[in-house]
Amino acid sequence: MASPHIMAVVTPYTVPAGLMDVLQVALLVLVAAGATALVLTRDPLRQVVLLSVYGVLLAVLFMAFQAPDVTLSALTVGAVILPALLLLTLAKVRRREK
Amino acid sequence: MTPVQRRWIFLGAIAALVAFYLWGLSGLPGFGNYPGPYGDVINRVAVAQTNATAVVSAVNFSYRGFDTLGEEFILFVAASGVSVVLRHLRGEQERDDASADWAMPRATDAVRLAALAFTGPIVLVGWYLAAHAQTTPSGGFQGGVVLASAFVLIYLAGEFLLFKRISPVDITDAVEAVGSGGFAVVGLAALGMGLAYLANFLPRGSTPGAVSSSGTIALISFFVGLEVAAAFLLIVAELVEQTLLARQEAR
């Protein structure tokens, strides 16, 4: 409370700073790779499945950057409800095509 | 325009974009360095002022509640738009819809079992998230989405008729209206007391982080949870409705 700046709180679960950097960089690379793969995918059904995986990646990234609120939003919207809505839409469109 | 000309225009535009992007990047504060005063002030006063230990929720539903109200109405309008486009009018017939003779494979036992086994726990998690905005990282938005996904699981398990029975469109519409309207009414109530719009007028409790603490923050989060759950449920219901009708007739 006293200092507005970041306080170094050490708990039994505290990860060493160097290790945290490695984790963050690895996750950034994974997210960049996931986004590239998503853009390069052309089949809509595969895009939807990959979008869900990408949503999970983003959620883990936000967690590693200490934003648990955003993690929850990314998990529920990006990984679950958006792919679900897109799947339902695909089902509707394909049905009409037949 | 020839392809060569088009390529030169593209190359010029992309070079300018990259230059501006790099210029902007070079002016950013260092990684993890937050230079503004606002966050520091909020961090210092939020818990003492609101008794909410989740400062993000305090910002979303109190300090910056007016913004959140706007965001909530974006979802409300989007769900209404989906309904307007997809909902069948009375007597309307779709001419070229082959849904009646479109056979979707039945859900396998593994899918049914997993979906039904997860429904209860997911309702619990969703309710927990919606009810604990003031204490831990969570809130009505995330909780509402999780609650809506529990209903989607019931649909996934192949319980079409149950899905339709527990989420009738009339009730979902009403819940959505109550959720989004409730948020606005909480703000109006503050106005009626001579306070600023969305001012926190309820008792905030004595223990920071208690479920009963934080006054209007918990209340608004609850309304947002209702609105979000109903909105997503409504969108899903509109998307699957025709399949449901076709199957009901086939039985």
Summarize the structure.
The complex is a heterodimer of chains A (98) and B (251). Chain A is 77% helix and 0% strand. The model of chain A has no long low-confidence stretch (mean pLDDT 86).
Written overview of the protein:
The complex is a heterodimer of chains A (98) and B (251). Chain A is an all-alpha fold and 98 residues long. Chain A has one domain. Chain A has helices at 17-40, 44-64, 68-97. In chain A, helix 1 runs antiparallel to helix 2 (44-64). The N and C termini of chain A lie far apart (63 Å). Chain B is mainly alpha-helical. Chain B has 2 domains: 1-35; 51-250, no CATH class. In chain B, 69% of the residues lie in helices and 0% in strands. Chain B has 9 helices and no strands. In chain B, helix 3 (55-63) packs across helix 4 (65-86) and helix 6 runs parallel beside helix 9 (216-250). The longest helix of chain B has 35 residues, at 216-250. The radius of gyration of chain B is 24 Å and the shape is globular. The mean pLDDT of chain B is 84. At the A-B interface, helix 3 of A face helix 2, helix 6 and helix 9 of B.
